[in-house]
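ok so I'm stuck.
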Amino acid sequence: MAFAVIALNFVFFVLKYTLLLLRLAIILSAILSWLFAFDVINHRNRFVNQAAYFLDRIVNPLLAPLRRLIPPLGGVDVTPIILIILISGLLAILPESKAALTGLLLGY
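replied:
not stuck anymore, here's the structure
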């Protein structure tokens, strides 16, 4: 029984920090896209180009379904904001879910 609780704690630990890193990747990707759009930085910088490519490969598969549902508002893509709100909601309910599952495992 104790092993199951330890495993559950580990799973929630990994899930929490994965969601936090994903939220950070979305924010960084949005900032880089704004910097490219306003020509503050350009794609000729190899490091910046690779960082933008890496972040796009992580973030775009998550944003694509939202972009199909939500059109740009006034030319502004609001899907990163919506995804950040959804991730923040998941992070908010994570402790309660962990407590509920731990209670079920321990028979409370």
